[in-house]
Write a structure and sequence with these properties.
The complex is a heterodimer of chains A (about 120) and B (about 110). Chain A is an all-beta fold and about 120 residues long. In chain A, a hairpin with a 4-residue loop joins strand 7 and strand 8. Chain A is globular. The relative contact order of chain A is 0.33. With about 110 residues, chain B is mainly beta. Helices cover about 0% and strands about 55% of the residues of chain B. In chain B, strand 4 and strand 5 form a beta hairpin. Classes of the chains: A mainly beta (about 120), B mainly beta (about 110). Chains A and B meet through strand 5 and strand 10 of A and strand 4, strand 5 and strand 10 of B.
């Protein structure tokens, strides 16, 4: 079964510092990978996705992620944190398996705190 | 372009009652998904509807059910509410099929007392 592990439930950075949120997955087939952001009392907003092709994926708000098959990782980065980046971030993998299930499997989430 | 909409925003029910949550997908999207986000349990897949049919359901009891209407909007029904059903229920939509990204609505906060 596919699974997603996000290392670190809380990450704290200073404004202007590099943001690195870690995500590792397990999958028997090449997965589709996603990062979503959730602001307080809101739904999830898609930041970026990896399906096929270029392994470095650029998303909205200056975020990017790199798919590394050998490391089964899909870490999210942003060169310079902004106060407005404070939110909860979820990594997700599509459950492709042997048949389409429609299901996204989410990690437990990482809360990003940005200090002034 | 309007995003996924959900109603109501908040819903307060008593244990044993029934709750009905509604979702309207992005125009052109035919797949609708329901997820439960409960405190401490993360995001759990509930149901997937496509072209009016239930395609898959997660590991939830039968009192969680729903349907998709001809206009692709969807309804989630939770019968015989239990305290642990208190959660944020998120609806998402996508183009038909499962390999497209899912776009989420703002959610319905269900509180069971």
């Amino acid at each position: 079964a596919q699974s997603v592990t996000q290392l670190g439930s809380h990450v704290s950075v200073s404004e202007g510092a590099l943001v690195l949120l870690r995500c590792n997955y397990s999958s028997s087939v090449p997965p589709y990978l996603f990062w979503y952001v959730q602001y307080p009392n809101q739904g999830l907003q898609l930041l970026l996705k990896y399906t096929t092709g270029a392994t470095l994926v650029k998303g909205i708000n200056g975020f990017e992620a790199e798919f590394k098959k050998s490391e089964t990782s899909f870490h999210l980065t942003k060169p310079s944190a902004h106060m407005s980046d404070a939110a909860e971030y979820f990594c997700a993998v599509s459950d492709k398996g042997s048949s389409n299930t429609g299901k996204l499997i989410f990690g437990q989430g990482t809360t990003l705190q940005v200090k002034p | 372009e309007a995003g996924v909409t959900q109603s109501p925003t908040h819903l307060i029910k008593t244990r044993g009652q029934q709750a009905t949550l509604r979702c309207s997908p992005i125009s052109g999207h035919t797949s609708v998904y329901w997820y439960q986000q409960a405190l401490g349990l993360g995001l759990q897949f509930l149901l997937w509807y496509d072209e009016g049919e239930e395609r898959n359901r997660g590991n939830f009891p039968p009192r969680f059910s729903g349907r998709q209407f001809p206009n692709y909007s969807s309804e989630l029904n939770v019968n015989a509410l239990e305290l642990e059903d208190s959660a944020l229920y998120l609806c998402a939509s996508s183009l038909t099929g499962t390999l497209y990204e899912q776009y989420f609505g703002p959610g319905t906060r269900l509180t069971v007392t």
